[in-house]
């Protein structure tokens, strides 16, 4: 496994990291989930990602129970807050009340004294940035959080966050977690250039486009039984004939390189030096084993140009 610095911080995370959205505590059987986490750790993944809202805390509980067997200093753990965790008016967002309460609840579910990264799971237009960043800074000073992160924030929103942090001497944002894959590339225009200038690293989610870039979907009329696209209607909408045709073309390149199309997709993401880690979800240990092999793969310029022609 290769490791990269997280933005301008001194923290080093594995190029490939394991998440728990839609998987742990959800439709993936507990035994497979536990084995996937254990396999990831055994193969050198030191970065595990979750959130309070994933299965309303169940993902945190399962992840916490599993990683408890590992030395705490040996892994990097991230969680988040923003999305609703209840029916009350203060059970959502990034108010000081919600941030503090949810961080403490996450620590309890995870069974740890601190998380390495605490993300603002989205931007909250209803809460002043100072209130949110001051609350997280207090958690940092208490030793409950080590690094400040955001997810799916625009360059302008991150710029405002950094300005507030610098004005009031608060801990700065060092990581952003956006969606990024061969079919979702919006961060290339503004987010990555801004982040490179300001010491913010990207930990990207959905690097395999929810499984589309693994090549397992061959036809809209023949979705694999038990797959997420077969179970979830919103995911089926993202599977189009045009994308499937591009995956077929990408698979030909992968075959020439003697790698899988999924490994090609991950290596393509890691060509971006501003990306610290590609975060994937695994339904079983075999998926972890395959994805980890993408670490260290360097794609030649001619391969990158061929990929660009296909995606264009």
Offer a few descriptive terms.
eight-stranded parallel sheet, TIM Barrel, 12 helices, 312 residues, alpha/beta
Explain this structure.
- By secondary structure, the chain is of the alpha/beta class.
- It has a single domain (3-208, 271-299), classed as NADP-dependent oxidoreductase domain (TIM Barrel).
- The protein is built from twelve helices and ten strands.
- It has helices at residues 30-42, 58-67, 96-110, 129-141, 155-167, 191-198, 228-231, 233-236, 241-256, 261-269, 285-292, 301-311, and strands at 3-5, 12-14, 16-18, 47-49, 76-81, 115-120, 145-151, 173-177, 201-205, 275-280.
- The chain has an eight-stranded parallel β-sheet, covered by helices on one side.
- Helix 6 links the parallel strand 8 and strand 9 (201-205).
- Helix 1 (30-42) packs across helix 2 and helix 1 (30-42) packs parallel to helix 11.
- The longest helix is centred in the C-terminal third of the chain and has 16 residues, at 241-256.
- It is globular, with a radius of gyration of 19 Å.
- The chain starts with a strand and ends with a helix.
- The model has no long low-confidence stretch (mean pLDDT 92).
- InterPro entries: K_chnl_volt-dep_bsu_KCNAB-rel (IPR005399), NAD(P)_OxRdtase_dom_sf (IPR036812), NADP_OxRdtase_dom (IPR023210).
- Keywords: NADP, Oxidoreductase.
- This is Aldo/keto reductase family protein.
- Belongs to the shaker potassium channel beta subunit family.
- Pfam families: Aldo_ket_red.
Summarize the structure.
The protein has 312 residues and is of the alpha/beta class.
